[in-house]
């Protein structure tokens, strides 16, 4: 008997039900926009007053992520609750789950929050997923540093919790480097990962429904700059069909093992010898999946709505080649000047296939994600050409 036949099937939550989201950032904003387009009402729980998602949601519950009264208000109003960032306290999701359907659940989120739990989980899935993470070792005390084997160096020391956009990471060549880095990070538990020879980086976006059915989007190829996602190109120009299929199958095996409901994105490395290594997962829509808004039949945000509302998952078909460029606060500043000016959006929007998404943040700062641009075109070459033209307008080295 299939898994779906064993689980009780909750009825769908149809519009105009309320859907709740933990977190008020840009992912929550784009989620709210997708939900509202389908006729849902959206409530956001977020401690800050003016936030990207709060600007568009019908209700903003201004409360800390672990505030019991705030959580109970969200649960009482909503037919289902989701999260837009992985550092939401897993206990908060568990509290919500006592009275409302929560997707993803606290378990999936807690595994993704903790690099040690995540690596263990990936290793445990390997017989089914066919992929392993990078060789690694937990560094929690001096003895662990003394016991580092030579083949883990050079490596990257990463904090176990709260890392994002390359923050909480130090590249290390020797045990002395590890020691210094461990001390500089306040001796919090870290993970030492062997530095691998990357040919390129890819991500796979999947969604799994309450009934155990899952869908998988085309493979995306990601370029990072200074630890932050710079561009996503889909279909990935360097990815062989074999690697793409392997990564897609691995992602579906991983979400099934996790018993996950909702959208989840898995990052993989493709090494110079062509082999595939699983890096990390995000239990939510992902920056590398933003292209789905403009280039796929069902966006990753609509897919999250469908999964949490127990609706059938949508068609993941990509109808146009796509290149996504993150827009950081840097483009508001000319050279080293510190007075911000608005970029020439009218020139960007004159380019064929341009889709501009700005997140409503009124305080541009360097390295802050302010929005993104997706170029869609019949061919990848055309989309890339428009992206290059946009980079020239924005003063970004393409
Ligand atoms: P984000 O949340 O923005 O995806 P992060 O801060 O959680 O990033 P990782 O994705 O683990 O951290 O690492 C950031 C980048 O560092 C990777 O995209 C990759 O370019 C590089 N990197 C990480 N681990 C390794 C490794 N073991 N070998 C080589 N490069 C690595
Ligand atoms: Mg990453």
UniProtKB/TrEMBL annotation:
Pathway: Purine metabolism; IMP biosynthesis via de novo pathway; 5-amino-1-(5-phospho-D-ribosyl)imidazole-4-carboxylate from 5-amino-1-(5-phospho-D-ribosyl)imidazole (N5-CAIR route): step 1/2. PANTHER family: PHOSPHORIBOSYLAMINOIMIDAZOLE CARBOXYLASE, PURINE BIOSYNTHESIS PROTEIN 6/7, PUR6/7. It comes from the Bacteria. ATP binds at residues 115, 158, 163-169, 193-196, 201, 224, 279-280. Belongs to the PurK/PurT family. Homodimer. It is an enzyme of class 6 (ligase). It catalyses: 5-amino-1-(5-phospho-beta-D-ribosyl)imidazole + hydrogencarbonate + ATP = 5-carboxyamino-1-(5-phospho-D-ribosyl)imidazole + ADP + phosphate + 2 H(+). Keywords: ATP-binding, Ligase, Nucleotide-binding, Purine biosynthesis. This is N5-carboxyaminoimidazole ribonucleotide synthase. It comes from Duganella sacchari. GO terms for cellular component: cytosol. GO terms for molecular function: 5-(carboxyamino)imidazole ribonucleotide synthase activity; ATP binding; metal ion binding; phosphoribosylaminoimidazole carboxylase activity. One of its GO terms (biological process) is 'de novo' IMP biosynthetic process. InterPro entries: ATP-grasp, ATP-grasp_carboxylate-amine, ATP_grasp_subdomain_1, PreATP-grasp_dom_sf, PurK, PurK_C, PurT/PurK_preATP-grasp, Rudment_hybrid_motif. Its EC number is 6.3.4.18. Residues 123-309 form the ATP-grasp domain. Pfam families: ATP-grasp, PurK_C, RS_preATP-grasp-like. Catalyzes the ATP-dependent conversion of 5-aminoimidazole ribonucleotide (AIR) and HCO(3)- to N5-carboxyaminoimidazole ribonucleotide (N5-CAIR). The gene is purK.
